[in-house]
Amino acid sequence: MGEDEGRGSVTVAQAAAMLGISENTVKGAIKRGVIAVERPSPRLNLVPMTEIEKYRRERLGQRGGYRPGAGRRPTHEPDATRGEEGQSAE
Asked: Does the pTM of the predicted model rise above 0.70?
């Protein structure tokens, strides 16, 4: 992507572009401590390339939506313990 890829640090906007996510998503991950940043000044967050790669490896591909086998049941399947009208089968 750029000359910083593989080493150094990039801005939040550059990190978001590299990851294919919004700046707000990156800022939220920083706020939650998922992505560590360097702060050379009070108004500047720089994201190390190692953090971008770590986030890509651990988080991307886990974004929302139904995934078969993820421990969830689709909402269109009826609950086996309920009767026709959603009442308990007891």
From this structure: no
